[in-house]
Amino acid sequence: MPQYKQSDITSPFWATNDGFKGGRDPMGIQNSSVATYSRLLPGMTNLTGHIRYYSLYCWLLNEYDKLETEEQTEIHQYNFIRRAELAMALIMKNQNVGSVVGALFVSQERYKLIEKGLYNLADGGDYGSEDKYWTYQTGAFGQYYLGSLIYYELVKIEEGRFYLRDKGKALASAFSKSVDKDARDLFIDCIVEGSLAEEEIEELQLLGLNRIVVNSAEWVALNHLLTKQDDDGSSLRRETVLLMLKDLDKGITVNDFVEHRFLNADKDDEYDASFGWYFYYLCEAFHYCIESVFCLILNELYDLYNPSMKILVEDIKERMLSYMDEQKKYTSIEEWKQNVNGKIEEMFDKLKEFIYVKDYTQAAVQSLGLLLRLQNEYELNKESILAFQNENDLTRQRGILSEGLKSYVLLHSKQSVDMYIVSIVHQIMQEHTIIAISKMGNTDTDLRKFILEDGRVVLVEIRYPTATSPRIDSLYNFLQDLSYIDSDGQLTDIAYNYIQNYGND
Q: Given 7, 107, 152, 230, which residue has the most CB atoms within 10 angstroms?
């Protein structure tokens, strides 16, 4: 069926239109989840795949400063780092290690050869290259890792240039002490010369992202970064490390970590991070509910083809009520809420299943029931939830649990079921419009997923509910890099020592 698509709107002769843009969070409520996991795991992101990059970048900046001071290089600082990233991708090729910067470029064999067996780091690494491994000017260093390096007070920016702070210089020194000098010198020579020979790759394996030597100065420094208290005195990150190691030891997979933490929060209640992951799970369930109803609205716009608002809302109401024989018996949302007694994790899993099979009407019905169940859970643990929100400066985040449930549940408690559906549809459409327009600012980018045109609601783009990614994969990679976890996913003596001695350091 016809619909508006991104960037497909014809421009009149007197104007241009950059088109409608996607945007990951069309309801603007995922910040609650993002801010929560940012408090639980600061100092990393979903894109910081290996902790050795932290020490490598510090060492590279230190070496660049030496070369520049001695007038031994004319390479721009950005290209110096970019060549190093491409060289590392070549060093790591065929090692079955993920999250390597430039790995796709190398796997597609898009690199240039100066001659057989001699890779061109300049053509492919430097920003001015026509076909380059990374489009962002400062490489993955600037795009992915810089924020974490600044958080740890390792690096600073002044007038578009990167400088090491004292802690960064110390980490650079630790790297130098832990990697053979011949390998270090060879790596720098390759960067400056802009080439890397196939036989040199073997000599440079000591610099590999998976080759941190346990108990070396570098290992000690990086391990301290990961397991020390946060700068504000919080222990949420180091407690999360502990909880993950304990769960892995019980056979809990990385993918099941968050749900397992939700289900076992009370068993580990001596740790603030345990409650933090419980809270994060509730935030995820809340925003997934709202996004699922929004998904139904957009799909109905597609099926009805530019309906009036009245027809759209009536159609959604009747569709949802056709699956709500039991719920229609309740005289109010409050009465329905009192009779909701399912397990949150089971209701959430069922909701995601409905989305997966594209049954968006039943997904919306499931969402309303889950919202009421979340309200019950909130009321049971209101004091602890509010305390966690306040202590971690989360209260002002859009979509935060307390305010979100108040807006979408509590304020509607006296409504009938059918009027609740109508109200929620209107509320979601209004809030999406507000958040989309606010994100547009002074740009021409339009983030709306529907527009009102001559009394009709016109679909722009269908969006589906998405979960946030809480940095768990990055944490797992860091723990493997530091040899807490072996290549088979089993805990090592280092991990068991951390568990047994936690709190005694």
A: 152
Tell me the DSSP string of 67-116. HHHTT---S-HHHHHHHHHHHHHHHTTTS---S-TTHHHHHTT--EEEET
Q: What is the pLDDT of residues 14-53, one digit of tens each?
A: 333 344 455 679 999 999 999 999 999 999 999 999 999 9
**Spatial separation of the C-alpha atoms in residues 178 and 219, rounded to whole Å:** 8
Give the residues across from 457 on adjacent strands.
452
Asked whether 131 and 124 are in contact (CB, 8 A), the reply is yes
**Alpha carbon separation from 108 to 104, 111, 127, 200 (Å, rounded):** 6, 8, 19, 21
Percent of the chain with pLDDT over 70: 95
346-400 residue pLDDT tens: 999 999 999 999 999 999 999 999 999 999 999 999 999 999 999 999 999 988 9
Per the document, the length of the chain is 505
Query: How many whole angstroms separate alpha carbon 156 and alpha carbon 422?
Result: 52
> pLDDT for 224-256, tens place per residue?
999 999 888 899 999 999 999 999 999 999 999
Residue spans of alpha helices (H) in 305-340: 309-321, 333-338
Please name the residue that has the structure tokens 């619909």: 3
Q: 354 Cβ partners below 8 Å, 6+ apart?
A: 292, 360, 362, 363, 366
d(CA 402, CA 292): 20
Task: Collect all residues with Cβ–Cβ distance below 8 Å to 185 and sequence separation of at least 6.
Answer: none
Report the distance separating Cα 91 and Cα 171, nearest Å: 22
Single-letter amino acid, residue 103: A
Amino acid, res. 350 = K
Token pair belonging to 151:
């958080």
Calpha distance 383→378 (Å, rounded) = 9
Kindly provide the residue ranges of all beta strands, DSSP E only, lying in 103-202, ordered along the sequence: 112-115, 118-120, 155-158, 161-164, 195-197
Question: Nearest 5°: CA angle at 36, between 363 and 276?
Answer: 95
Per DSSP, the residues of 278-304 read HHHHHHHHHHHHHHHHHHHHHHHHHHH
Q: How many CB atoms lie within 10 A of CB 17?
A: 13
pLDDT, one tens digit per residue, over 323-354 is 999 999 999 999 999 999 999 999 999 999 99
Q: Quick check: helix, strand or coil at residue 44?
A: coil
CA angle 172, 175, 179 (to 5 degrees): 145
Residue owning tokens 């979960």: 467
Provide CB contacts within 8 A for 194, sequence distance 6+. Answer: 83, 120, 121, 122, 123, 125, 126
Residue carrying structure tokens 């409905």: 354
